[in-house]
Design a protein that fits this description.
Four-helix bundle copper-binding protein; Csp_YhjQ; mainly alpha; YHJQ-like
């Protein structure tokens, strides 16, 4: 596997972990309804990152398509998380946007 794909899959697994942490922390916030879009995108982002990273490690012929999709979802999740002042959201936004950028550079 190419070194660049290894870096992308590692970033995707990191993004999955951070999104899951953000998702869990958002559910514990006082005004959870305000966090609904953040929670939804955290889940979607974590799921696609895990799936895409696994596909990359299997050297799937669809890896490029999944990387492009991952870039789109990570960008959306990062932008949503940036709207919230919570530390977990800001951390998530940073990693999601890094992942989106890495994926876009590959595509």
């Amino acid at each position: 596997m190419q070194e660049q794909l290894v870096k992308i899959s590692e970033k995707m697994f990191e993004c999955q972990r951070v999104c899951n942490e953000c998702f869990d922390a958002c559910l514990k916030e006082d005004h959870v309804q305000m966090m609904a879009e953040c929670i939804r995108l955290d889940r979607e982002c974590a799921d696609i990152c895990a799936f895409a990273a696994t596909a990359i490690t299997r050297e799937s012929s669809l890896s490029a398509d999944l990387i492009a999709l991952c870039a789109t979802i990570c960008q959306a999740c990062g932008k949503e998380c940036e709207k919230h002042d919570h530390d977990h959201c800001q951390r998530c936004a940073k990693v999601c946007l890094e992942c989106a950028d890495l994926c876009r550079r590959y595509a």
